[in-house]
Amino acid sequence: MSSEPINEDIGDLFAGVEAATTGDANADKLLAPYEGPYQGVPHFDEMNLDGLKAALEAGMEKSLAEVDAIANNPEPPTFANTIIALEKTGDELGRVFTYWGIWSSNMSSPEFRAIQGEMSPKLSEFQSKINQNDKLFQRVKTVYESDVMGDLRPDQQRLVWLTYDGFASNGATLDGAEKMRYAEINKRLATLHTDFANNVLADEEGYVTYINADQLGGLPESFIKAAAAAAESRERAGEYAITNTRSSMDPFLTYSDERDLRETVWRTYYSRGDNGDQHDNNAIIAEILQLRDERVKLLGYENYAAWRLQNRMAKTPDRALDLMEAVWPAATARVAEEVAEMQAIVDAEGGDFEIAPWDYRYYMEKVRQDKYDLDSDEVKQYLQLDKLRDAMFFVAGELFNFNFTPINDGSVPVWHEDVKVWEVTDKTSGKHIGVWYLDPFARPGKSSGAWATGYRSHDTLDGVEKSVLSSNNSNFIKGAPGEPVLISWDDATTYFHEFGHALHALSSNVDYPTLNSGVRDYTEFQSQLLERWLPTDQVIDNYLVHHETGEPIPDALVAKIKAASTFNQGFSTTEYLASALVDMRYHMSDPTGIDPDSFERETLAELGMPDEIVMRHRSPHFGHIFSGEGYSAGYYGYMWADVLTADAAEAFAEAPGGFYDKDVAKSLVDNLFRVRNSIDPADAYLKFRGREARIEALMRDRGFPLPDTDSSEN
Ligand SMILES: [Zn+2]
Question: What is the pLDDT of residues 657-672, one digit of tens each?
Fold first, then answer.
C-alpha cells in the first residue's frame, strides 16, 4: 500500500534451510521458479503427474524448515523477523499447488484423484504442524501485543492481526488438556464432515426414479435424451432415469405434466440424508453441532456463530440476522402473491388441488411464459462469446484503465491448446500489470461450472511489484471452426462475474501476500458487481450484436430481460433465506441433545415458512454447512454481498456519467478493488459510499416493497 514497492529484508534467516530438490526431474520442475517472460510463468507445458507426490513432500518439508527457522530464531521477535518472514515461506509448495489446481479442476484424471486421496490427510497434518507450533505462535503473539504495533502502517497492523487471528482462532491460545481436546475435536469433525458429504452422495446416486415412455409429457427433448442415456448407463435401457441431483430434479419439476411423479421426485430429492437408513445424517448433524459448540467454548466464545463472524464483514450474528429478518417478510409476502397467481391457473384448468411444493416450479413456468414471453433462443443470437470477451476488455479499460493484448507467440505455456493468454497493461503508462489466462471450453476431466483462480498474486515483498497471473475458466461448448459460439443471458452474466474476480486480483496493490486473502461474506461482491455492466448501453450497442446481421440487440428484448429479472423472487429468496436462517439459528443455539429434524421443523414454523416451499438445502443434505466449515454460520454471506452489490450499483446509476462515471469508477477501484484485504471491508465500503450499504437497493432489485424504516426516505 506504500506508493513505492517495499523491500523487506529478513537477513539470512533462511540461510540454513536446504533447497527443495528431489533428484526427480518431474518433481523438480513443479518446485522450480517460473521462467520466461513477465517475471516467469508456470511451466504448464511440462507438468508431469509422476512428479506430484515427491514435489508436495519436498515442498512441505521446505516450508516446515522455514517455519522452524523463524520459530527458533534466537533474536527477539520483530515485525520483520516473524510476520514478514512468515510471508516469505512456502514459495515452492505454492508453485506445486498451482499445478495441483490445474490437475484438480482443468485436467482431472483417476490417477490424480488417487494422489489427492493419499496426500490430503498429509497436507492437513502439515497445516496442523504449523498452526500448533507454540514457539512460533508465542513470537507472533509478542509482536501482536507489543508497542511496535502503534508504529506500523494500518495495512501492516492488519497483517499482524490476520496472522495472529489465524493462529488464535484455531486453538493456539490454549494449552495442556484443552489444546489436546481442541485437536481431538478437529480430527473428529474432519471425519464427520466427510461422512456427511459421502452420505449425501450415496443418496444422490442410490435413489433414482425410473419412468417409462408414457410418462414423459411436458419434458423437453434434451432432458428426455439425457434421461434415456442415464437409464441405459444404469442397465435399464428403454426406461428414463430421473437422477437425484439438482440438475435433474429442477427441470423435471419445471416441465413434467405428471403431478404424482413430480411429488415422487420432489420427495426423493428433499429426503437426501434423511431416510432413516445407514446414510441418514441426523445423528451426524447433532454430533457436529455439539463438537463445534464445545470447541468455541474452549476459546471463550458464547456460540459458534459469534466465533465464526468475528472476522467477517458482518462481525456479529445479530447483524447478519437483522439483514435476513428485514428481507424475510417481503419475500414470504411475494410467495403468497406467486401462489395466488398459480392457483388461479390450477383453478382455471379445473385442477381440484392446492399448490403443493412439487407444483411450484411447474406453475411458475406457466406464469413466466404468459407474462414475459421471453424467447431465450432469440436472446442467444446476440450473445457471441468472442464479442462478450471484447466487451469485458472494454469495461476493464473504462473502469480500471487496463489494456488486454493477446500473447500469440507461445512465450506463455498453457495446459491445453484451447487456453489463450493476454498481457494486461496500464492503458496510459503501458506499465505491465499481469497475464490473464482464459480456458473457455468444456472437455472431459474439467470441472463443471465456471470459476476464477490465480497462479501468482500481487505483492512487493522483494522490492518489485509482482506480475499477477490470473485466470478464468468456463464450460462453453466449442462451436464448429469459424462459427460463433452463442451463449445464454445467464451464461453471459456468469462470464462477467468471473471476470470481476480476475479484475479484483489484477488490480491488487497490496504489499503482502496475506492481504490478498478473501473475507467470506465479501468475496463475491466485486464479481457480482461486474455483472451489472453487461446490460449497459455501451456494451449493448457495440458488443451485443446479432451474429449474422450485426444489429444490436433490440431495446424491447432488453426490456423483457430486465423485467424478467424480478420474476420468481418470492420463491428463490424464500428458499435461500430459510436455509440461511436455519444455519444461523443452529449455530447460535445450545446444541445439547439437539434433534435436527424437530429443530428444523420448529425453527421454520416460528419463522412462518410458507407451506408451498422448502429450504433450498434441508439440514440432512446442507453440505455448505455440514460437509465442512466453509459456509457454516456463513450461508447468509451470499445475500450480504448482494446488498453491497445492489447498493454500489446504485452509486453508479445515480452518478452523472452513469456506469462509466470516471469519479465513481476511480473511487470503486481505489477503495474496493485494489486494497483487497488490507483494510476492513466495512471501512472500505464507507470510504466508497460515504455511508454503510442499505438494503433498499436489494429490495428494489428483487421487486420487493421497501421496508418501513427511516433510511428508505433517502
Ligand atoms: Zn464468484
Answer: 999 999 999 999 999 9
Show the cell assigned to 511.
504489499
d(CA 387, CA 445): 27
How close is the Cα of 498 to the center of ligand 1, in Å?
A: 6
Cα 9 to ligand 1 centre (Å): 36
- Which residues form the catalytic set? 498
Integer angstrom CA distances of residue 642 from 400, 523, 528, 622: 22, 11, 7, 21
Query: In sequence order, what DSSP letters do the residues of 562-628 get, joined into one string?
Result: HHHTTTTHHHHHHHHHHHHHHHHHHTTS--TT--HHHHHHHHHHHHT--TT---SS-GGG-HHHHSS
CA–centroid distance, 493 to ligand 1, in Å, is 11
Distance 141 CA to ligand 1 centre (A): 34
Q: Give 450 Cα–ligand 1 centroid separation in angstroms.
A: 9
Residue 61 phi, psi (nearest 5): -60, -45
Q: Residue 363 and residue 271: Cα distance in Å, rounded?
A: 23
Distance CA 473, CA 602 (A): 42
What is the radius of gyration, based on Cα positions, of the chain?
Answer: 27
552 DSSP β-pair partners:
545
Please give the distance, rounded to the nearest whole angstrom, from the Cα atom of residue 324 to the centre of ligand 1: 21
Measure 209 CA to ligand 1 centroid, in angstroms. 33
Per-residue model confidence as pLDDT tens digits over 668-710:
999 999 999 999 999 999 999 999 999 999 999 999 998 765 4
Which DSSP symbol is given to 217?
A: T
Q: What is the pTM of this model?
A: 0.90
Say how far apart CA 521 and CA 531 lie, in whole Å. 18
Cell of 28: 523438480
In this predicted structure, what is the pLDDT of residue 122? 86
Residue 71: half-sphere exposure toward Cβ, Cα within 13 Å = 16
pLDDT number for residue 3: 52
Q: What is the pLDDT of residue 562?
A: 87
pLDDT of 710 reads 45
Distances (CA, A) of 470 to 437, 451, 456: 6, 11, 7
Q: Is 108 left (phi over 0), alpha (psi -120 to 50) or beta?
A: beta
Q: Reduce the DSSP state of residue 523 to 3 states and report it.
A: coil
Q: Specify whether the CB–CB gap between 643 and 323 falls below 8 A.
A: yes
Which grid coordinates are listed for 685?
465500503
Q: How far is CA 501 from CA 105, 401, 404, 472, 678, in A?
A: 17, 16, 16, 9, 17
